[in-house]
Give the backbone structure.
Amino acid sequence: MPSIFTRIIAGEIPCHKVFEDEHVIAFLDIGPLSRGHVLVVPKEERTKLHELSDASAAALGGALRKVAYAVVEATGCADYNVLQNNGAAAHQAVMHVHFHVIPKHADGSGLGIRWDAGKAPADAAELAAAIRKSVPG
C-alpha cells in the first residue's frame, strides 16, 4: 500500500506545495507545530533514511537548505528545527522518509525537545571504529 506521501506525489491527494523538483516535493504539514511547518519528502518511497539512493539523499540535502531559507524568509522566524525520524520506535508515523522544517516563533510555538544526555561509553574508540568500518564506500 502506498504511503500518504506517495499519494500526494502522484497528485491523488492535494497539498499546499512549496517546492518540487525531480527528486523531492515539499509542502505544508496539515498538523503543523507552528506557522510555516513544512514537510520535505523524497519521491523515492523508502521507509528509512539509510535506504535511500545517493541521488535522492543528495537531492534532499539541497532541497532542505532551499526550503529552510524560504521558511525563514516567508515567516520571519529566526530559528527552526529540522526533524527526521526512522522507524516506529523513533516516532515515525508515516513510513516514507520525510523531514520536518519547523519554525520556532517568539510565541513559543514549534518543536519542544527534552534531551536526556548521557555519558560517552567506555568503549567509545571501539564503537567509533566499528561505525567507521561500516560507512559505505
Remarks:
- The chain has a mean pLDDT of 96.
- The radius of gyration is 17 Å.
- Residues 4-134 form a domain with the HIT family, subunit A fold (CATH 3.30.428.10).
